[in-house]
Amino acid sequence: MIIRKSKSELETMREGGKITAACLNLLAENARAGVTTGELDRLAEEFIYEHGGKPEFKGVPGPPGFAAFPASICASPNSMIVHGIPGSYRLKEGDVISLDVGVRYDGFVTDSATTVAVGEVPPDTKGLLDTTQQCLAAATDQMRVGKRLGDVGHAIQSLAEARGYGVVRDLVSHGVGRKMHEDPQIPNYGRPGSGPRLLPGMTFAIEPMITLGSYGIYVSERDGWSIYTDDDSLAAHYEHTIAVTEDGPWVLTEFAGEFRGRS
Ligand code: MG
Ligand code: MG
């Protein structure tokens, strides 16, 4: 069942979304050569609590035999696609780093991610980042009343594949609200006109994960969390929490630069 949110619930999610967005913005500004992912995590955690939110990722139970997620953000460099545990990894010139933030605020979760180039990167890396961002924009544009979830996945897949990139299939976009992962799971590929019909008040975390090579993945046996491309190709990941409304898509985690903290 897809849970629809009331107007006032969406407004609450937007307030939380501003914290998520501003936190990601802060991380992107600080993702420079020489900084560790652990330092970025501490920065984010402090920021989230300071603004009345709670980091949603911390304490999420791990797969069997592995510890709960220990940090407030996911920080996934280069061929790591998602779920990287922040720590001693030090960013260097030419890296790409995917940063994912989930914030609980007043009972609701917003979930958003960005991929940052550290210093100068080669043109093919830049192309991957630009295309993944454009995939998210194309998907967002499909989030209109009467469209279907297959239209959203198709928008991502058709753009990425037309440019020769891989679309990760084993990780999905998802519903989001009082829980970080609500129904349904939404593949980042699909057939136009297929799947559930979009209705006002539905809220989804749309998150294309696109690679310079294969779409196959593997999970680290070392930590049970980090997920990599199986051919070690670079990956990019952008995500927004978006509501379907009568007036069109409402990007709840959009950062307009106007955030001044809790009023
Ligand atoms: Mg996320
Ligand atoms: Mg997500």
Mean pLDDT: 96
The share of residues in helices is 25-40%
Strand order of the largest sheet: 8-7-9-14-15
What is the highest CATH level, the class?
Alpha Beta
- Per CATH, what is the topology? Creatine Amidinohydrolase
Chemical compounds bound to the protein: magnesium ion
The N- and C-terminal alpha carbons lie at a distance of 35 Å
What does this 3D model show about the protein?
- The chain is 27% helix and 25% strand.
- It is an alpha+beta fold.
- Strand 4 and strand 5 form a beta hairpin.
- The protein is globular and about 45 Å long.
- One magnesium ion binds at residues 111, 174, 205, 207, 239.
- Residues 100, 102, 111, 113, 207, 239 line the site of one magnesium ion.
Features:
263 residues; alpha+beta; Creatine Amidinohydrolase; 5-stranded antiparallel sheet; 4 helices; 15 strands; 27% helix; 25% strand; globular; disordered C terminus; binds magnesium ion
Please provide a brief summary of the model.
The chain is 27% helix and 25% strand.
SSE order and pairing:
Blueprint: H1 7-30, H2 37-50, E1 54-55, E2 73-77, E3 80-82, E4 96-105, E5 108-117, H3 123-141, H4 149-162, E6 166-167, E7 173-175, E8 182-186, E9 203-206, E10 209-211, E11 217-219, E12 227-229, E13 235-237, E14 240-245, E15 248-251
Antiparallel strand pairs: 1-4, 2-4, 3-12, 4-5, 6-10, 7-8, 7-9, 9-14, 10-13, 11-12, 14-15
Helix pairs in contact: 1-2, 3-4
The chain binds magnesium ion (MG) (2 copies).
